[in-house]
Amino acid sequence: MDFETWWLVFVPILFGLGWVAARVDFRQMMSETRTLPDSYFKGLNFLLNEEPDRAIDAFVEVAKLDPETTELHFALGSLFRRRGEMERAIRVHQSLLSRADLPVADRENAQFQIAQDFLKAGMLDRAEAAFEAVRETRFAIPAMRALIRIYESEHDWPRAIEAVRRLRALVDEPVPQLVHYQCEQAEGALQGKQPDFDRAGKALDEADNAIRKLGSGQQGMYASQARVASLRARVARMQGQSEQERAYLVSILNSAPDYVGLYATELLDSYRKLGRDAEGVAMLRSHYQQHPSLDIFNVLFRVLREQEGHLQAWAFARDALRAHPSLLGLDKMLEVELQDQGQNKEGADTVGVDQVIAGADLSLLRSLIHRHTQRLDRYSCSSCGFEARHFYWQCPGCNSWETYAPRRLEELK
Predict the structure, then answer these.
(1) CATH 1.25.40.10 matches 67-171
(2) Nearest to 299 by CA among 338, 273, 266
(3) Which pTM does this prediction carry?
(4) How far is CA 393 from the centre of its chain?
(5) pLDDT tens figures, 359-369
(6) How is the chain split into domains, by residue range?
(7) Among positive and negative, which fits the CA dihedral 366, 367, 369, 375?
(8) pLDDT tens, residue by residue, 238-280
(9) 384 annotated binding-site participant
(10) Average pLDDT over residues 123-145
(11) Is 395 annotated as a binding residue?
């Protein structure tokens, strides 16, 4: 293509247009800067000097002088909420919602923010209403998750289940705690003088459906299966169906072997009702060889001590503690021996202990060991570290589900 000399005329014209545009932008920026209150720059200066309290006061002053600064309002509200100043956070977001000219997107955001303020302040009724108000907005998913937490804290399991279903309609993700919501409903149906077995059975059927939807290999599936099986065994026991109770408890050995220790006593009791004590003990001993746990050790030692005497019980204990050393295990053994001695002071059956530990002062030995094992005889939440003497499906500290391993602290170290 031939070059025309007269095209060069456009070069200075383009430079001139660029200079004019730059001047206009600069003047506009300077004009906007002059309109900002001095408090704004004071707030920035305080932030740079790491004086957050004075910076907040300065920005609050800016918000009072210029109500149109919606982004600053949102920033202040979030900052107050993080600092735990819930009254101030609520007041900031309420001031935004009171504006009739607030754009729809900002109004929805303000509604969601004030819902979070109410939730953190513990005002659950107001938080629930505020989250419900944004169910049809872009905040629908986080709002549904917050509503689930609210219903959990209120132990309103039917509404929590409904909220999970609504969440699943918005996002395709597994919700493992749905199984526990159904189990909580089943436990509620079994309480009282007149348990509702039909309602408990329906809730456990729904729990089984929820487990199947989780799919194999999902984290927490084994814990859920153990809880459902134990509740079905409880229903069978309350209805006098000993064989079904035994079958449900035995199923835990295969579906959730790590959780057997939690139900070892109930398992042996179910065999005892059927007159099959030896079979139950043999099965539990076999399971212990594959999946050793302190709870199973304690149950087996006590049962062997009652059924076969001191020598057989201590022989089992020696082999078990050699394979899996445990101060807690030894502490529990000595506790059983001391209890038995207290019940048989006038009998001759305690000679077996002397044959095992000649001349030992079991009371002194146990007191020394017990002092060191008290802090180890606990379950611990893997999420927040909350420790408890009893096993919980939901942590009392952080309300997380299935964060307690079915093993004591000593076994986890």
Answers:
(1) yes
(2) 266
(3) 0.76
(4) 8
(5) 456 676 667 67
(6) 67-171, 313-376, 378-413
(7) positive
(8) 999 999 999 999 999 999 999 999 999 999 999 999 999 999 9
(9) yes
(10) 95
(11) yes
